[in-house]
Amino acid sequence: MRSTQIHLSHMAHSPALTERIQALARKLEERHSRVMRCRVAVEADTHRARKRRSYDVRVDVAVAGAPDCVVDRHHDGDVFVALRDAFAAVERQLEPLRH
Fold this sequence. Notes:
alpha+beta, 2 helices
């Protein structure tokens, strides 16, 4: 995999968030050598009535010789938890391809 494409929507750029996404993508590539591309989109909820922000995370992974793996996760309050859960779901979907 050459690079991870990251798209942040309705939120300020965060070096910590970008670094975490890249680390999770590198780990994914190390465990699954057939990963060709990883796209991650993070969108913050823009409704101002909520006291806590919520986040939607979409991870789209292209794998050589297999259908794309797409995971959507939502979390109220912590974008890092949403990322963790999304990448864990991708890992579970790709596990059968390791054998």
